[in-house]
Write a structure and sequence with these properties.
mainly alpha; disordered C terminus; two-stranded antiparallel ribbon
Amino acid sequence: MRHKVGQSPSQRGGRGRDHILPRPCPVADYPGQSPRAARESMGTTWASPGWARLALCLAGFGLSLYALHVKAAHARDKDYRALCDVGTAISCSRVFSSRWGRGFGLVEHVLGPDSVLNQSNSIFGCIFYTLQLFLGCLRGRWTSILLVLSSLLSLAGSVYLAWILFFVLYDFCIVCITTYAINVGLTVLSFRGAQGPKGKAKGH
């Protein structure tokens, strides 16, 4: 079978490589989006959590572990004095050992003292900061929503525990107040992260 000179492979019966293999749609074909935003819209991607979120999560996790240590040491020895026990009105061990230091003082009344959820507040803190750091390493719509919701939940818990600290226990817990500030910082970062992709899309 002879072919005419100048014919392309697709014109010679449709057996050319270009005819068999479809061309992929490039990322730049998504109008109004940068290549990174287009990839994120198609699914969840891994990325750096940022130094601010990393530092806040590590600090919060470390303080939560320290609170667990102080509570366990105070349970073994009632005369134990932690570094954060400055005075009678500035005592973190007294706050951690109070009934509000376990299950936020609510789980025991709702689910009973033997409930698996009636754990030390510091355990919930370790779970929260781990979740924040893990979700901060992901880029996607649902991860941004989870970050905002978990941050708002921690912010509500911080306000509740701060009210208990100042108006019920009449104490000034340095560790507690520091974790409240960390939770506020994580909430700000979560909202900025959720609004970031929209702002970038509008700018293009």
